[in-house]
Structure formats: structure tokens, C-alpha cells
Amino acid sequence: MSSTVLGDKDVNAAQTVQATESKDIKSMEYHRQVLQSRLEEDKGKPTYVSPSDNIMSPCTAKLSAYRNKHVMKYVSFPLNS
Fold first, then answer.
1. Do 56 and 64 meet the contact criterion of CB atoms below 8 Å apart?
2. How many CB atoms neighbour CB 4 within 10 A?
3. Which InterPro entries does its entry note (predicted)?
4. Among 21, 33, 47, 72, which residue's Cβ finds the most Cβ atoms within 10 Å?
């Protein structure tokens, strides 16, 4: 083993990058096509909406009301010109 393994590097020396896995990397266009095909597959499936999705706990309802009250103080509505 060489004694210069942990030695200083020459700042002007070109760095080489080994591309061992570069053949396995897919192009961005390939990924777009895969995403588009998956989105089209999902369009045919109906989405399930639970009846309890809109139910809030008492604490969540209180926090939401407080947040809305606080936000409405600082919102200015544009007047019809």
C-alpha cells in the first residue's frame, strides 16, 4: 500500500468519475412516460371517500375556528371598483 493514500491532492489534477451504474440510469423522458401511464391507470379507479372525512374532533374544530377568526382579521377584501 502506498504511503500517499492520505496525502495532499494536486488541485490542478483532473478528477475522474467512474460511471459504473450509468447504464442503469433511465432518462427523464422515460420517467415522464411511466408517470403518465400510472396516472392514466388511476383515472379509471373510483376514489373512496369516507363519510367521516369531514368530521372533526372538538379540539380540532375549536382550533380551526380560532385560526379562521384570526385570519379574517387580517384579510382585506377587494372592493368593487
1. yes
2. 8
3. Spo12
4. 33
